[in-house]
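Take a careful look at the sequence and tokenised backbone pasted below. I need to know what the token row says about the fold.
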Amino acid sequence: MKTLSIDIGGTFIKTAVVFDGQLMNKKSVATPKNLPDLTQLFQEIFQSYHQETAYERVAVAVPGAVSETGKVAFGGAIAYLDQVNLIQLIQPFFSGEIVIENDAKAAVLGEWKKGNLRKTKNAAAVALGTGVGLGIILNGEVYQGTHRQAGEVSFFIRDREIAGTDSFAGMGLSAVVLIHRLAKLSDVPADGKEVFRQLKKTEHTEAQELFNSYCHGVAVLCFNLQTILDLEKIVIGGGISQQEIVITTIRLYYEKLFRTAPVIEQTLRKIPIECTAFKSAANLIGVAEVSR
């Protein structure tokens, strides 16, 4: 069955028709700043795909906790989505099956069924984007949590001082914020590919220190997840994960954490940390796997 997948991110909304893990007619547009503009964009998306590519159902990945009825509770970087029922919002434009899922939970489902988490029973996918998302597989199922809020790691506290928003993972480990800070330091446009191209060829100490600090922070997050959940593997997703240096540096700091004290290596099992198989398309492919 062909699914029109819609991935609502804090910066861009991505769309594609998905069939058996393959993307067709993929598009991307800037995320609207308010709900009326989002509603108008939905109308345009459905009009466009109705004319171009056949599909039988719709699946939407979105930040925040999602109820079984399709209502979003706190839309992450998209504040205006709080308490919005996306199924009801979309129904005027499409009369068939509509499913809504948290973006990180969608990503981990796709990776578990078709990507780099296949053959695992306990694993996680960390999504590095405008904020930070986490999808968890426990005992062969996506773990939702008591209030369907499992994986809201944007609220993980990163330091004891709690001096500001950087003290929380959602801002302190935001890939979008990192790109803008690196671009400013390197005096280049805030484009991920250009920023990393510059980072690899320069010895700009401050930029390298900022990047290393970021990767150390992600490694600490992965380490803490392992101490709590005893996982088999963690995959890292989001556009930034396409840069090999990101995964390599995260692994480097993850290894260093185990060498902090002998008792850590004696007690905890190291696990693989890899890039998601579907990279920035993980949400689109994963949400197509969600069923009612």
Q: What stands out?
A: The mean pLDDT is 94. The longest helix spans residues 205-229.
